[in-house]
Specification:
mainly alpha, about 80% helix, about 0% strand, flat
């Protein structure tokens, strides 16, 4: 497994762990009857900040650790990463378009959507970008191999 594959697996695992932690917290809050997107009391604002901090710390972890990794790319690596970025953007656009279309169709032209739904759409779009990009990198490199592949 080469360094790009290791980096991709790391990013993928951190992203999935972040999604799992956020989902568990949302389920916990909802089971207690607490609306996560309700900002009416300071206690609810603190819960939302906790959820946001726990969701963004892994992203900073990814950025800091990737900064320290030495990046040596040849033409094949550049092609793979370019294709992966394009795949991620297409997936993110498809998810964003689908989610906004579903929101529009569910409330109608004169309706309104809660701000929490809009934030959820953006989070879902970002997650779809990371997942599609990681999957494309792993598929293009294939399985196995050694550090020189």
């Amino acid at each position: 497994m080469n360094k790009a594959q290791k980096r991709t697996w790391f990013r993928l695992l951190i992203s999935l762990a972040t999604l799992l932690i956020a989902s568990i917290l949302i389920i916990y809050f909802r089971s207690r009857g607490i609306d996560v997107y309700d900002f009416s009391t300071p206690a609810r604002i603190r819960r939302y900040v906790l959820l946001g901090v726990l969701s963004t710390i892994p992203l900073f972890l990814i950025a800091v650790i990737e900064w320290g990794w030495k990046k040596i790319y040849d033409e094949r690596d550049k092609s793979i990463h370019k294709t992966a970025a394009l795949t991620g953007l297409v997936a993110a656009f498809a998810v964003f378009f689908s989610a906004t279309l579903i929101a529009f169709l569910s409330v109608g032209p004169g309706g309104s959507v809660e701000i929490g739904s809009v934030l959820g759409i953006f989070q879902l779009t970002a997650m779809s970008f990371f997942l599609a990009e990681s999957a494309a990198i792993l598929l293009r490199y294939g399985s196995g191999g050694n550090d020189n592949d």
